[in-house]
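To fix ideas, we close by showing one paired sequence and structure record:
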Amino acid sequence: MSEKSKLFGHKTLFSNLIYLDQIEKFPNKILLNGPKGIGKKLLVSHLLNALYSKNNEQIYNFKNNEYNINNNLSLLISTNSHPNIFRIQKKKDKKIIDIDQIREMIQFTNQTSLNNESKFIIIEDISLLGINSANALLKSIEEPNNKTNYILVNNSEFKILETIRSRCLEFRLSLKNSEVIEIINYYFNSDKYNDINLDFINNYNSPSFLISLVDFLEANDFSIKECTIEDLLAYIIKNKLYTSDEFIKEYLNLFIELFFYKNINNSKNISFKIKKYFYLKLSFVKKYNLDFESFFLEFNDKLLSE
């Protein structure tokens, strides 16, 4: 594992925000909006390391857009121990970001900052704010304390309150395909991207998904070049991984989508009507906590066993 954290993509936005800080016009309410897994949190990490490096002996490498993950500043930020940074994310035992977390944040904003530096509040997955917590946040960001900056992060497939969106400077993020390839190959330190079966390659799949996919396939002794979407789905169904494996559960909809994307035009027996039927049925299974096994048995019998 490299000791360096390198920024991929979003470099123009990064440079612009650094410049705004240099001329003392850094926006105090930022919304980063984009698909899951494209590096929004990585961008935030690089911003924080760069901004706090101004008065720190550990200098951010602006030429290469990288920093050492083991320096004192980076460790303080990554472990949520930096005294001027307050990070909020959904707790594992909760379904939403609750009001108590926002109350703690408000207490933080009322405290004096260390060394008179700017304070940053980072809220991840803001679509998970409860009604009460969203209203409390709204009051806080309408009149932020001096030297307090908010960076809100949202996965673009989820909607957020327009009242929050309208009060922030919104940046819509995406990655070029060349940047996705660069990230995959950098992570594995090899030309891994070209080994991935084409069933899993399109313009919408994020680096995070592809990295997790490669790790999953290799851990389960699949050839990443030869494994098809049908092979993967058959393995998932046989071993009931749709209930036990976190990676599979997270991307279950995507696997179904990839299957239909490949087969909808290549098979006379798979139509848009069948696709709509299984999409709707899967949504009901998830919404009402119904039996996944019966869904996948039907999926296997009607679509994979042909």
